[in-house]
Amino acid sequence: MHGDERPSWSEYFRSIAELVAQRSTCIRRKVGAVLVRDKHIVATGYNGAPSGIRHCAEVGCLRDKLKVPSGERHELCRGLHAEQNAIIQAATHGVSIIGCDLYCTNMPCSICSKMLINAQVKRIYYGEGYADPLGEEMLNEAGIELIHLPVAEKIAE
Known about the structure:
alpha/beta; 5-stranded mixed sheet; 5 strands; globular
């Protein structure tokens, strides 16, 4: 984006996903997700511990303690992924996400990919990759369009 130009819709929703990620309580990676239908935000989510329990920033990272590499053993974590929290937020408010686009700062993992496939999300815009190739493989097999949309570069001051 230059000068007085407005951001494209993709840039706009990507930027919102980046802002949502700033709420993350994960000490390894901050991820934001935005579910969009017809240019309207349906739900957002960021990665972190479930409501009402202590965050990893308070109790430490179990994955770090156990030396679990990124993209493996997802069950060994106190937190939910951003995509999971966005899906849960929509469900909590009784909002269908069928046909939504997902804007996410990262490629979804295999668990989130399975959820997004069954939730009938039609397109995923993602910033950075993720060390779980099964997720991308399943999304491709399901015919969900994947669009790499790099994270906006930080403006040097």
